[in-house]
Amino acid sequence: MPEKLYSSDLEIFEVPFPKLFKKILHFFEDPLKEPITQEGLKKARDLEKQINKGLIKFLIHGFSPKLASVVDINLKNFNLRIYTPISNEPLPVIIYFHGGGYVMGSIENSDVLCRKFAKDLNVVIVSVAYRLSPEFPFPIALEDSYSAAIWVNKHISELSENSKKIYVMGDSAGGGLATLVALKNKCQKDFEISGQILIYPWVSGEFNYPSSDLFKEGYVLSKKMLKVFRKCYITNPKDSQNPDFSPIYNSDLSKLPKTILFTASHDPLRDQGNAYAKKLLKAGNQVIYKNYLQTVHGFLTIYGFIPRGKKIYRDFIQTLRKMLYD
């Protein structure tokens, strides 16, 4: 019988955690600790930059595929990076929001992954460098992300001639931003979103789900780190349930674009992602949900360096191509 790669629900408590992960966790352990200091924040971001250089970058991310162009665009408050594959067809445009808990992450950190997405999906990727907290707290990340989507819609014919399909995609905090952009656009009706792709998304500011404690430490993203990120981003603790930060608390999740939502079996965010998928379905939306087994938060970023990672990546790409081209 073929090895089970993913589940459509959460029957994974008995799945053993691969020991190899334990050996690579030190690359992703943030030095941020409470009380949060500028020194700790700088050290964490410097570590992230080091991971994205030289041999370590290659071991984690692999080769960067050749594209037709990679162009940086400077907007008023933030930047975009546009990845265009070698193609003569009208291409869908995916707006990509990186992860990092609203505190970490960058265009550079997700550069190789976005290049691979552009080539393997045959799409234009617009990566958004929204401003980070605590320097720019809630709701600035959402404001920047929505402004980026407005810009993409305005320039869609320049990004991909004769194409009108725009998708939003993000991982972790970026997954939360992707669906928040879709929700805001549902109310404002500034443009049309053809689909949302949510990768182990952070959609609730409350950590009252079983996976929050089951995988609270030792699995790349810790519950303690999530609390640090939350404290950096929202200055008012009451905003942990604000629908503009926690979309799972939005009272109306109907009439959203078709959704693909991915979670990781050993991730403190797993159960809130699963709960969000179920709420979207209950609200009448078209949803595909996959919980990848024996893996952790951030598996796409390091898929070439982990067990089953390449199989997961291939399935991930095949799943998205069906949304984009079927």
Automatic annotation (TrEMBL):
Task: Report the GO molecular function annotations.
Answer: hydrolase activity
Q: What species is given as this protein's source?
A: Promethearchaeum syntrophicum
Identify the InterPro entries for this entry: AB_hydrolase_3 (IPR013094), AB_hydrolase_fold (IPR029058), GDXG_lipolytic_enzyme (IPR050300)
**Hydrolase found in the keyword field:** yes
Keywords (alphabetical) are:
Hydrolase
Name listed for the protein in its UniProt record: Alpha/beta hydrolase
Highest lineage ranks of the organism? Archaea, Promethearchaeati, Promethearchaeota, Promethearchaeia, Promethearchaeales
One Pfam family recorded for the sequence: Abhydrolase_3
Statement: the UniProt record of this protein carries the keyword Hydrolase: yes
